[in-house]
Amino acid sequence: MLVLAFAMAQGADGFLSRGPNNKGSVTVPLKRRNKGGASLAQGAKKHKKHEAHAKGQASEYYGELSVGTPPQRFTVVFDTGSGNLLLPSTDCTDDACTGHKRFDPVKSKSALQVAFADHPGEAVGEDGSRDIVTITFGTGEMSGVYVREQVCLGQGNDDDICCQAHFVAATEESDEPFSLVPFDGILGLSLPSMAEGPEFSIVERLVASGSMEKNLFGVFFGNDNEDSEITFGRYDQNRIASELLWLKVTEPGYWQVKIDDVTLGKTSLGFCDPGSGCQVAVDTGTSLMAGPSDAVQTIHESVYVKHDCSNLGDLPKLNFMVGNIPLALDPEDYITNSPENGCQLGLMSLDIPPPKGPLFIFGDPFLRKYYTVYDREQTRVGIALARHAPQDLDSTDGDDADALVFKHRKHHVHKKDSKRHLRHGRRHKHHQ
Fold it and tell me: Which domains, and CATH codes, for the chain?
């Protein structure tokens, strides 16, 4: 249970922190649940004929945080593909909310009801005027209001890291997808431009509060019956089995990087422009691997998978090339096996519209094979082979091991602009 186990000091800047000269890091354990295909991936057109093939591979990883004084505990998806913390509130009486833990501002002495995202320090006035944000998902939507609160990550001891930040407290949630998920909310960990404002980016606020040793975090997704975790303030060397390959973020917002080619074995599939390459979003909130529909169609036509999986050992690696370095997925990584469908190609078609797209999505199957580090200070993503059980390392293909020894061989009512997000769309209305 996450509790605030130390006295918080509030400085003149208003940040809640662990106190001077007490920067640190914290590891949050994650639970894994295999699921039947419900997904929060939004802002794009999904194609059913390929989506069904991947259901057996779908999974969710989620952990805990606490909000308020005294702390209220919630389970959330730690999502690098969105920017805000979203939690259901006690003002929401929909079944999707009441089936989960709800934030109660009345029970917190540190809660501040915020009127407008563009004026984050302005409390709701006597007339009750405030913005309501609506966030749309592929199968539903949620609406909510802004709250400033104390947010803590950790396991309820002196190593917890905390900050004062803004989040969206849901007042309405549609039955789908929210009633179907085991977690209460979503913690967005994208770069700050995808948040409602700087005060809504939890990682930015943790750094500004002086709580984090380094401005980065690392993610380890375990296999079945294996621990999973996310570490803030550092990354865990014990979780990686190769040197980190650092890729610069190309378009701040998503943790979006460039690859040079996509190949099956040594055969290029011709998706990527020789000059500009292809764009990939590294997304801890997407359960599947995904890509543009024409690219996924080509892969489906190029890989023949027997229903009984008997030819799995004959299938090629799916490589995402960075120069001459392959970020390789074995057939076991990109093929899914389910009782209903047998062995199928585990890739979902997902068309992200320009200017953000087209994009490939490195979802959970990629993130189980590779440990990833998200470095806000230098705006880059680090990728290394994940260290699972010893037998996994013993059986790792020598080509993969050699290749990964890297030697360098908002739309608000008073604004005209809008942003389209991979994870969701949003709209605001003024409410009194």
Answer: 9-44+58-214+411-431 (2.40.70.10), 219-403 (2.40.70.10)
The catalytic site residues sit at 79, 283
Residue with tokens 């809640």: 16
The answer to whether residue 401 scores a pLDDT higher than 70 is: no
- What does the pLDDT read at residue 405? 47
- Percent of the chain predicted with pLDDT > 70: 79
For residue 6, which of 33, 36, 26, 30 has the smallest C-alpha distance?
26
Q: Model pTM?
A: 0.84
